[in-house]
From TrEMBL:
The keyword S-adenosyl-L-methionine applies. The keyword Metal-binding applies. Belongs to the class I-like SAM-binding methyltransferase superfamily. RNA M5U methyltransferase family. Keywords: 4Fe-4S, Iron, Iron-sulfur, Metal-binding, Methyltransferase, S-adenosyl-L-methionine, Transferase. This is tRNA (Uracil-5-)-methyltransferase/23S rRNA (Uracil1939-C5)-methyltransferase. Residues 1-59 form the TRAM domain. SUPFAM superfamilies: Nucleic acid-binding proteins (SSF50249), S-adenosyl-L-methionine-dependent methyltransferases (SSF53335). GO terms for biological process: rRNA base methylation.
Length: 452
C-alpha cells in the first residue's frame, strides 16, 4: 500500500477523463496531472485512497515526443486548460481514446466491432471561445479578473486568454481599467462587501457584435452613468451593456434579474444560414466554428428525406432542430427551461419555419403523450446535459422505437452508459468524436444508432 508523501517511479499508460496521466503502481491506479502517455516519471503520492492514488510529478525520466511548451504564461496556475503541454494532433488522438476508455468502463459493448472515427479538430485551435466569464478581485490595490486557481481560492489574473476570442480579452482588460479608474467597489468573496463580481464578455464570431454583462452583488452600481459612458467611449464595438444582479452565495455566475444599461438587449450571431439573438443570459455554443461541423454531422446522421417526424429532445434555444427543419416533415422540440423555449419559438418564427413546434416539459413525459395522440417520431435527436439522458427517456425511446437515434454527447461516460442501454434494440453505426474545446480535456461526440 502506498503511503502519503512516498515517491515512486511510474510509467504513464494513457490520459484520464480530466486530462491527467494514468499509470499503475503494484496494480494500484495512480492519477498524475501533467504527465503524458508513454512518459516515465517519478511521482509523489499526495492523496492515497483505498482504490486509487493521486500524485504529483517530481520529475520526468523519459519525456513524451508529443510534449510541448505551453504558450500560456499562467497555464500551470489557472486550471482552465488541461492539455496545452500536449501537441495538438496528439490531443485529438487522446480524445478518441477517452471515448474508448469510457465505453470500456461504462458499457458491455464489443468495442472492437464499433466504428469510432478519428476526432474532428480545428485548423486553428486558439481563440475559439466566444464568451468569457472572469471573476473580479483586487490584488495589491489593483483590479484583477480571471479564474480561481485549481483547488484553491487564489484568483489568477488573466490578461490575454489564448483560447478566448481577442474581442472578449479586450473588453475584459478595458473594463478592469474602467473599474479601477472610477474606483467602483469590487466584491470581496469572504467579507461579502463590495459590488462587482464578474465581467462577462461575448462576441458574435460571424457578426462582430460584442456584449458586456457586469454581474453585481447589489442592484446599486456606484457611478453607473460614468461607467456606461466610459465603456461607450473606450469600447465602441460593444453593442449591448447589461447588469445582472446576483446577491446569492453561489457558484452560479448569473442571478435572476438583468437590466439593460445601454444599447440593444441582445447581440446577433450567425451560424450557417441562421441568425440568433443572444440576450445576456441566453445559452449559446461556445465554439461556433466547431458547432457548425457538429450540427452538419447531426444532419448527416439523421439522413432526412423531407418525410420524417423529428424530435429534438433537450432542445435549448432550438439550434439543432432548426438545422434539420428544412429536410424534415415536422420537428418537435422540448426543454424544461421556459426561457429557452421562448427563444426557440422566436428563432423558428424569425426564420419562417411552420413545421417546427416547441413545448416546455420533459421528453419522457411529452413523447408518450404524443405517441398516444398518434404522432410517432422517425428520428430522435438527444443532446443531454453532462449527466446523460434521463432513465425514463431511454425507456420511452426503447418503447417508441424511432428508426434512428442521433445522440449528441458532451460526456463520454454518460454516452457509453446510455448507448449500452439503447443497444438492446439499436445497432451503433458509428461514433464521431469532436474537439469543441481544444487544450482542455472535454470531448464531444455524435453517435448514430439505427433500429435493428
Amino acid at each position: 500500500m502506498l503511503q502519503q508523501g512516498q515517491q515512486f517511479p511510474l510509467t504513464i499508460k494513457r490520459l484520464g477523463i480530466n486530462g491527467e496521466g494514468v499509470g499503475y503502481f503494484k496494480k494500484q491506479v495512480v492519477f498524475v496531472p501533467g504527465a503524458l502517455p508513454g512518459e516515465e516519471v517519478v511521482v509523489q503520492a499526495t492523496n492515497v485512497y483505498p482504490t486509487y492514488t493521486e500524485g504529483k510529478m517530481v520529475r520526468i525520466r523519459k519525456r513524451s515526443p508529443h510534449r510541448v511548451k505551453p504558450p500560456c504564461p499562467v497555464y500551470e496556475r489557472c486550471g482552465g486548460c488541461q492539455l496545452q503541454h500536449l501537441d495538438y494532433n496528439a490531443q485529438l488522438e487522446a480524445k478518441r481514446d477517452i471515448v474508448i476508455q469510457a465505453l470500456e468502463r461504462h458499457s458491455r459493448l464489443n468495442i472492437e466491432a464499433l466504428h469510432i472515427r478519428p476526432t474532428i479538430g480545428m485548423e486553428d485551435p486558439w481563440h475559439y471561445r466566444n464568451k468569457s466569464q472572469f471573476q473580479v478581485g483586487v490584488k495589491k490595490g489593483r483590479v484583477i479578473a480571471g479564474l480561481y486557481s485549481m483547488n484553491s481560492h487564489e484568483l489568477v489574473d488573466i490578461d490575454r486568454c489564448l483560447i478566448q476570442h481577442d474581442a472578449t480579452n479586450r473588453v475584459t482588460t478595458v473594463v478592469k481599467a474602467i473599474l479601477q479608474d472610477l474606483r467602483i467597489p469590487v466584491y470581496h468573496e469572504r467579507k461579502k462587501t463590495g459590488v462587482v463580481r464578474t465581467i462577462v464578455a461575448r462576441v458574435g464570431f460571424f457578426t462582430g457584435d460584442v456584449q458586456l454583462v457586469i454581474v453585481t452583488a447589489t442592484k446599486e452600481l456606484p457611478r453607473k452613468e460614468l461607467f456606461v459612458a466610459e465603456v461607450k467611449r473606450r469600447l465602441p464595438e460593444v453593442k449591448s451593456i447589461a447588469q445582472n444582479i446576483n446577491g446569492q452565495k453561489t457558484s452560479l455566475i448569473f442571478g435572476d434579474e438583468t437590466i439593460v444599461l445601454a444599447g440593444e438587449p441582445y447581440i446577433q450571431e450567425v451560424l450557417g444560414d441562421f441568425s440568433f439573438e443572444l440576450s445576456a443570459r441566453a445559452f449559446f455554443q461556445l465554439n461556433p466554428i466547431q458547432t457548425i461541423k457538429l450540427y452538419d454531422e447531426v444532419k448527416k446522421a439523421a439522413a432526412l428525406t423531407k418525410n420524417e417526424r423529428v424530435v429534438d429532445a433537450y432542445c435549448g434555444v432550438g439550434t439543432i432542430g432548426l438545422w434539420l427543419a428544412r429536410e424534415a416533415k415536422e420537428v418537435r422540440g422540448m426543454d424544461t427551461i421556459p426561457e429557452a423555449i421562448d427563444d426557440a419559438r422566436q428563432n423558428a418564427e424569425r426564420h419562417g419555419f411552420t413545421n417546427v413546434t416547441y413545448a416546455v416539459g420533459k421528453a419522457e413525459v411529452l413523447l408518450p403523450k404524443w405517441v398516444k395522440e398518434g404522432w410517432k417520431p422517425d428520428v430522435i435527436v438527444v443532446d443531454p446535459p453532462r449527466t446523460g439522458c434521463d432513465n425514463a427517456l431511454l425507456k420511452t425511446m426503447l418503447q417508441v422505437k424511432p428508426k434512428t437515434v442521433v445522440y449528441v454527447s458532451c460526456n463520454p461516460s454518460s454516452l457509453a452508459r446510455d448507448i449500452n442501454t439503447l443497444a438492446k434494440h439499436y445497432h451503433i453505426e458509428y461514433i464521431q468524436p469532436f474537439d469543441l474545446f481544444p487544450h482542455t480535456a472535454h470531448v464531444e461526440s455524435v453517435a448514430k444508432l439505427v433500429r435493428q
